[in-house]
Amino acid sequence: MKILMIGPLPPPLGGTSVSFNNLIKELETKNLAEIIIVNTGGVRGKGLNAIPAFINKANQIFRKAKVSDIVTLHASTTGIPYIGPLCLAAAKYYKKPFVLRKFGGSDYSETINVFAGIIASSIIKRTNIYLVETKNLVNNYKSKNNNVWVEWFPTHRNQTLIKIKEEKHCRKFVYVGHVRKNKGIHVLVDAMRQIKDNDITLDVYGPWFKDIDKTIFDEHENISYKGVIEPEKVIETLQNYDALILPTLAKTEGYPGSIIEAFMAGLPVISTTCGAIPEIVDESVGILVPPVDSLKLKEAMLKLANDKTLFNELRSKACEKANFFSTESAAKRFVNLCTQCVKAYK
Known about the structure:
The protein has helices at residues 15-29, 50-66, 80-93, 108-111, 114-126, 135-144, 185-194, 234-238, 257-264, 294-306, 308-322, 327-345; strands at 2-7, 34-39, 70-76, 98-103, 129-132, 150-152, 172-176, 201-205, 223-225, 243-246, 269-272, 286-289. By secondary structure, the chain is an alpha/beta fold. Strand 5, helix 6 and strand 6 form a beta-alpha-beta unit. Helix 2 (50-66) runs parallel beside helix 3 (80-93) and helix 3 packs parallel to helix 5.
């Protein structure tokens, strides 16, 4: 079976591009299907300069859809109204089934304008399978669109088998993600400012955005910015730490890749109740706090630091949780769904 895979590849690094890239690599490495790729990265956000690139992508999509058995689009909520109509048109023109995979935990109507929402809704109704990241979205769409084939398809990462060795104390915290305001970086800095234990440290990894001042960590000896980690080295890097912190403020959060990677590295997680994060972080693997609450964030960090028994219990459960989010399992399921779709379409 020939599967046309349309979506963004890194760079830049982000949850969508990393997950899409991981899926492609797994499909190719295990020879699960013949993959035809159109990289949609580098088009949006460039104004008029994006027009030639968009025309080029459109040409690729139509040319490659012709020789494929199924067309699949992997896009963020905001990306669906822009690239979605083109992909759907190519699939319909060549009479090929169309699979839409949406990243993120928000409904399209919550994050984009009315006109874009109408476009997205129209595309979803015409897709043969709609893959969504969270269980909440599955339930929402099943209740609203009874004729749409909706499947839960969570974020995944390449799994590394980790064995929890000796018990230890929690002292080294880590943040991995975009260094920007809507990820709660300023809240995290304020929480660290309230912690007086010099043995507790925080390292920050990720691409830096303009809405965060470059001097934000300067007066904090226990906070260090470490730059960007290559996707294939994230889990390996996380193994050098004790717990992950993701103080995000974004209501659109689905299943953040950094949380999945933390589980695979055997790290408990402290995060906020934003978006769909409570679906994967509970009291068995971490601690949830309200967004924009540096006091609660500080208390959660100190709870892990001061309760060795709790910390090590969470470490063990985190490893068990990781099994649900392996790219290997996701790739096999993706091919199975595509196979079912092609058979049903005929």
